Amino acid sequence: MAMNFAGETIEDIILSEDKRGVSELRPFVPVDFCEQAAQYLLDHPGRVAIITGFYILTAGQHETDGPPGAIAIGNALQELGREVTYITDYHSAPMMSEWLGDRAAVVDFPIAGDEASRQAAKQLIDDLHTDLLVTIERCGRNAGDVYLNMLSRDITEYTARLDYLFEFGIPSVGIGDGGNEIGMGNVAEHIPPVDRLPDEPAITEVDRLVLASVSNWGGYGLVAALSRLVGRNLLPSVEEDTRLITQMVNDGAVDGGSGINRYYVDNFTLEENGELLGLLHELVDRAIA
Description:
GLUCM_C, D-glutamate cyclase, mitochondrial
């Protein structure tokens, strides 16, 4: 079935085929939110920490949405000379280490209680000398200090409290697609009125927020905007991205939309995902030609 990835802008494309209603939040962010976030990356040089990994309760595994977008961003920033570290928890850390090899360090942040997590966050920030935080598809705590999935089921005991990394005033960019991710605190008051979005959204805020129908697409959109700003196409190829998602599934990751170990991302096939990424390539190539 042909998908309707229509649109004249990066923002239009990554909010195409919206199955949850996240595009209803678009009036509450800047029109050019991808470009603003990309410019923010350039305006804040130095070491970057990228946070990702979302636990799927029904599968006991992490999902295919998040890490591919994180790695696309990280690879792009490394191409621009930036030092990148990835931060996740034990559900995602072994696989991410395998996929990245010696390209970047992966930190396994402990799943622990409030005080221990705060201490771990402070120590990690000090150790990494982090200048910029980027979070993509990472569950954030709500106003009740609980981590909920899109079915409003409590996944606190399976989720490292990576929100605390955002309490030190470090410049930050966030990407989300459902309302329960770190960064969606920027639009928290507007989330409950949308039927398919959470009644108890995440509250952690970021300096620049990217919305997308699928968080990976938000990552690709951020890289596309960055590419246009620097005059170089930094996007992963469709083939490279497809290989990564395939490897993730082979290693046990699941489709977040169904909880099934299949070659999908949020109920989209690899072909549909590749179609969107291909459109972003076309947009970038036209802009920098």
